[in-house]
Amino acid sequence: MTINGWIQIALFCAIVLALARPLGGYMTRVFTGERTLLSPVLGPVERGLYRVAGIDAAQEQHWLSYALAMLAFHGLGFLALYALLRVQAVLPFNPDGQSAVAPDLAFNTATSFVTNTNWQSYGGETTLSYLTQMLGLTHQNFLSAATGIALAVALVRGFSRASAKTVGSFWVDLTRTTLYVLLPLCMALTLFYVWQGIPQTLGGAVEATTLEGARQTIAVGPVASQVAIKMLGTNGGGFFNANAAHPFENPTALSNFVQMVTIFALGAAMTNVFGRMVGDERQGWAILAAMSVLFLAGTAVVYWAESAGSPVLNSLGLAGGNMEGKEVRFGILGSALFAAITTAASCGAVNAMHDSFTALGGMIPMINMQLGEIIVGGVGAGLYGILVFVIVTIFVAGLMVGRTPEYLGKKIEGREVKMAMLAILCLPLMMLGFTALATVVAAGLAGPANAGPHGFSEILYAFTSAAANNGSAFGGLTANTAFYNTTLGLGMLFGRFFVIVPALAIAGSLAAKKTVPASVGTFPTHGGLFVGLLVGVILIVGGLTFFPALALGPIVEHLAGGLGQTFAVGG
Amino acid sequence: MARPNSASLFSAALVGPALVGAVTKLDPRTMIRNPVMFVVEVVAALTTILFLRDVATGGANLAFSGQIILWLWFTVLFANFAEAIAEGRGKAQADSLRRTRTETMAKRLRGSGRDYDTVPGNDLKVGDVVLVEAGDIIPSDGEVILGVASVNEAAITGESAPVIRESGGDRSAVTGGTQVLSDEIRVRITAAAGSTFVDRMIALVEGASRQKTPNEIALNILLAGLTIVFVFAVASIPSFAAYAGGSIPLIVLVALFVTLIPTTIGALLSAIGIAGMDRLVRFNVLAMSGRAVEAAGDVDTLLLDKTGTITLGNRQATEFRPVHGVSEQDLADAAQLASLADETPEGRSIVVLAKDKYGLRARDMASLNATFVPFTAQTRMSGVDIDGSSIRKGAVESIITSVRQPPMASRGSSAALAYSPGVADETIREIQAIAEDVAKAGGTPLAVTRDGRLLGVVTLKDIVKGGIRERFAELRQMGIRTVMITGDNPMTAAAIAAEAGVDDFLAQATPEDKLALIRKEQAQGKLVAMCGDGTNDAPALAQADVGVAMNTGTVAAREAGNMVDLDSDPTKLIEIVGIGKQLLMTRGALTTFSIANDVAKYFAIIPAMFLVLYPQLQALNVMRLTSPESAILSAIIFNALIIVVLIPLALKGVSYRAVGAGALLRRNLAVYGLGGILVPFLGIKAIDLGITALHLV
User: Fold this and answer.
1) What is the ipTM metric for this complex?
2) Where along the chain is Mg(2+) bound (chain B) (predicted)?
């Protein structure tokens, strides 16, 4: 670890924090329907869209209609994307002549993008046409991100409203998020990335002759625009197979830094939106503080583990950090920080191979995801995910002040607890359940490239990433098989919608409640005490469940490494 | 507290039946009410069956499995014991109420005459009218419809002084089990056998009919959810072990599962609820539902009647304020003479003040040859005629009216008074000014005249109860707003409110105003508590979230409220709120403790369990437990014993002090959160040392 490295971490945090408030202010205006700077330009477009779709923007929805609208919208989106993948061979914008995608891979890919996971069982430049990338994937990158934000806003309305029947309109939230937030920011970022050297073209792959005279095919395409939304919308699906490690997706240290900031930007700003909408910005800062504590702790461990290097090599007398699977232009800090961010935020873009991290360095990304992607998290998804934990925290500890638990004036009762527990149950079921299946069936055991605990980690990581809707791959796992495509696809579906629907139910139930004015007898939820408590509950309720699995994967691998032991293939 | 307290938590009389109860509660139909413990019971039963099979077929490691299974059953039994002992304490309390009503015979009237049938009290139905004569026990709860009697209610209140019960007024309700001392009354029965207040109270502390409160239901959902999470965590382990090329014995998985699920709070949850009700009974308050006790903890606004709650019931003289030209001594002397024969508390307080302040000793009316002139509704004043002079005291307006008219000859005033309007008018203005001054300060002015000459004003004041200001400060610390309800005019009310330190007041309050105030507070999302006794309080009592009816009150009031205070002490609202808060806090503290325990249990069992797969995991054995078997056994023993250790806390409740929520949380979090993480590390290590020394594994 170096001073320079810590300064970069500090700088990263400072910029994200500095952006949270202005972005939050702007987004709050967007979601509450107030006039913004862009209204003169986008207002007519927005109204035009509503007219075409026959939407009455003033008509709000009950949480159930909101949920059904969201599910119907994604159902159709899934079918459209699936169809596109299956027939891309006969459609235009296919200069490299990509063939139709196989059914299991098409299912997996469609699910992956609809759920904002962007797990990639395919290699982008060798599987998908430009049309599929732009119309299918980039399109879903926008909409799945916008949906996450819309749902978070609906849940926030549950807290901010009193005795209300509705939680907003899904169509309006979706449209406004896309038009006013995602599109303008992505346009600016695209231009920035083009300046940094990322290609943006509809032309086919470039043929080059190397110095030795060999012919090389260099894949290009509309990369910059997709990179912009993949980071900003915490999607993470790369244009190229190598994702952000590819020099055309992430050419410079500056582009690397900006990509890291944009992964966190909207998620962090959402906490400010939350604070503003409930009328007390401190509440948002408290949530962001809890996220920051977990993030910094995780980052410190990854950075330390990668700087310390492999314990096996250390025990052989070789000192030095672990550079295996890392790009030299990013180095240890640039890779370790990126790994912590991308897994904390449900982005899933990678600029280094997590499979090649040290055992503990690779464990932190797993824990980040297993906690439920609530450390800043996916855009919107991070906020509603952590609010579910807040409800559990308030319920358990809030009783200790001698009142029925309340959060922001809303009483937390049976229904909220039931829905919060449903949402929390979903992740361990998907992550541990599918891992348990894959570790005993032949089709599952065929996947991992390594034996012993590391192979186990590869499987665990894959299902963790899918269910948490992260989408990053540990690597080393051959996932493009019918077994993995199907099980991972199911993990992504359940991991997304079995959290969203209970969260919406909570929104509906909270909105209908009265708001109790705060008094000195009310559990204060904006101070350090609450932040510490929230972190504790997240770790104990959300994290400890995975302790047995982690003990058998990265922990034992690390301990064995310290003893100079490795696990041979087949052993 | 009036009722003798059963001092010991674990007296032999309680423990015996509770031990039996712990076993009978193993009935799955009873257990299913408690999902967490039901799961433990099912797991214990299944492993017992497998164990018996292993014994028959000669399996390996039977001593170890046998001990684990034994402790699984102990876990369930300890939980049942906790509930049984809480019920036992509640029942002992209720039984002492019930004992007073050993099969009474009732005189059921046939018609409007005095003819009656003698029937057992249990056969009475709602609407029956019974005759209760001096010496009879009132057979059931009811309302006096005819007559007036003095009743000894010591059986329920512990207070031996008899109380008056009469038809028509606000004191018409009688409670079954109390005894009529004098006179006779006719009582219409309002509660059938088995549904009197006491019966309902007994039902609330008995497990079978106990309804779970909303908060308890929500907590049970959380605990069930956590249990399912740990099902996933444990059920996935066999696959993981298979991948690592080994297997984990079922009994070890079961041990891990049972230690992880929140058995501590699951075991104590119902005991906490019952103990909360029980604490109320000890305070002589009967709650009609557990929900009411919970609501008490949530109260945001407390409506308190001024008289009897904030002030002592009676006004007292505090000051003599003479008009210009009259000395205080003279005024005191006249006022004392006028009050000598006045038996009202106000009158007596004037005599006392005159003595305390001016050393005027009480004089004997007879030796002074004085005639007492009693208060009448017409004159609105009282006084004495002594040695030919007449002294009067009364409401300022009445006195002024009387001095404006020359005194009537019939009064026997021989002193021919030179009536000079000019002087009198000036004095009248002065008296009025003093009177207004007194009223502003929250007092009631009483004017005094001698022979038609205005002497001055005696200040009568509501005396605010000692220490009440501190109580209100405490309530404010708890975040509760207090509102004083009074019939006084706003000026007086404001003065008393300021003196007592209440947050707000409602002056010249009618029952409708009270109801409107409650609705207004509730519309803002606040919970309101109040107490009342009159029939006209009934709507407000029913509307309030916590309505405490006074036992002396009417049947209507008692039916409308959700608690009855047997001592009829309105100040108790404050204690009731405290008990509600304590109940919720105890639940929260033990839940936090239970969940925090998991950290240590993981560190005890995970390395022990996986050691056969990966010896390297020995590094996780941070407690340095002797062997895998001893580690697992220690964890499960700790898990069972902690239930017993925490029973006293569950029954007594965590200590509650009126400090802000932040301070309270910090303290409880340090004790039960951090404590919950650390205690099991120490406990498991200690048990491990013990079982190693005993060679149990």
Assistant:
1) 0.92
2) 533, 537
